[in-house]
Amino acid sequence: MGITCKQATDYILKKEEGRLTLRQRYHLWRHLAVCIFCRLFQKQNKLINASLKQHGTHDHLDEEFKETVIKAMNDDSGTEKETGGL
Ligand SMILES: [Zn+2]
Q1: Is 80 in contact with 6 (CB distance < 8 Å)?
Q2: For residue 57, how far is its CA from the centre of ligand 1 (angstroms)?
Q3: Ligand 1 mean position to 38 CA, how many Å?
Q4: Mean pLDDT on 61-79
Q5: How far is 41 from 44, CA to CA, in rounded Å?
Q6: Ligand 1 center to residue 43 CA distance, Å?
Q7: Please, are residues 48 and 65 in contact by the beta-carbon 8 Å criterion?
Q8: What's the 31 CA to ligand 1 centre distance in angstroms?
Q9: Angle between helices 36-55 and 22-34 (to 10 degrees)
Q10: Which alpha helices (H) appear in 1-86, and where do they start and end?
Q11: Are 36 and 8 contacting, i.e. CB atoms less than 8 angstroms apart?
Q12: What distance in angstroms lies between residue 83's CA and the mean position of ligand 1's atoms?
């Protein structure tokens, strides 16, 4: 039993906002242990947040930018190509 990369990235974003339950954190931790892609995503997400804070960007732009990055990364990976779910 595990979580998908999609869930993991979602958890990573929620974790930044402190909105993750203990169980979700455990699943995320388990996923990050085996998935280099999501580890990279977490790293990038931290960098993005840090740089956005430096530039004093507005919150809504923050979210929008993160969405864009997630989409770009999903396209890049090429692992999920409109399979229409499981
Ligand atoms: Zn993953």
Answers
A1: yes
A2: 28
A3: 4
A4: 70
A5: 5
A6: 13
A7: yes
A8: 6
A9: 120
A10: 5-16, 22-34, 36-55, 59-77
A11: no
A12: 17
